Task: structure prediction
Amino acid sequence: MSDQTRAARLLHLRAETLQKGDPVALPLTLASMYHLPGDPAGVPGYGRMDNATVEALEHALALLEDAPCLAFPSGMAAISAALFATLKAGDRLLIPSDGYYTTRLLADRFLARLGVTVDTRPTASFAEGGLAGYAVVFLETPSNPGLDLCDLSAICAEIRAAGGVSIVDNTTMTPFGQRPLDLGADIVVASDTKAPNGHSDALMGHVATRDDNLLEELRAWRKLGGGIPGPFEAWLTHRGLETLELRFARMCDSAEALAPRLADHPRVARLRYPGLPGDPAHNLARRQMARPGLLIGLELDSAETAERFIDTCPLLQPATSFGGVHSSAERRARWGDAVAPGFVRLSVGIEPVEPLWAALKESLDAL
Result:
């Protein structure tokens, strides 16, 4: 199924099961208890396992991923589920040294304490040293925030041949930008707080897999661990998801237009964007990504310059996270990421590109 066909069907997915008189919009089901006399089999029983709004979101996500999906109350809840459901004491885990830092903190603070050996490697050279001996390999490409890439199909094939499980964080790309399951990944995790919801008003995450055994373990972890998404947040994410294809296309189009202009600006010392022909990851991006994405990494000469650029641009929201309708930016070194002090992660929103460029240029010119 093409992305356009998938996006079109998503908008009519609920209509496939509507009865006469049903509301076209997804209803919000707020219930922890259900009327449950007698035998409980075959009907909703308790909110920790059953909620129609959450299940509708999972149904929509499953269409996009072309795989069964489980929703979680945040991206980190999804990552935690994927790791805790696949690892045990004595296992070895490999994660990126330059990926989302909270995943490393989770591994170092909790998984290592439970007897999991945690190794790290930079994304750009992730396959170097081999992948045999790892029970689980966690990948993130493009890396957040540096935007390095690794070869998903080659690495996932090597992991599978060695008997390991591959988990890919696809938050930066969404299913419309990159399809890790199609490239051989066992599990995909994502923060739907970002572009899938898109409106910066709800936390949500999901896990997708085509492996029935892994799916059962993930479902059991959610049920027993209690990482249950709220129905209102699921409803908000479902509503946002229906415009994801449109918003993501606009964001990527704008990022592709802005990246070369930013790269040419004299105040920008260095710029990373996989869509640029001169980017070190460009050829790999063309092979495994449908779009180059909505994130641009640009480096200014100091932390002070970077903060001034962000604070003085009227069309930039100074905020952490990314993928919202508003363009946003932050200096990632403030969180301890291994980037230059003046490195800015720019998340391109849905503003018309020319006014956005004018605002960015004016702020850069004034530095």
Summary: Residues 244-365 form a domain with the Aspartate Aminotransferase, domain 1 fold (CATH 3.90.1150.10). The radius of gyration is 21 Å.
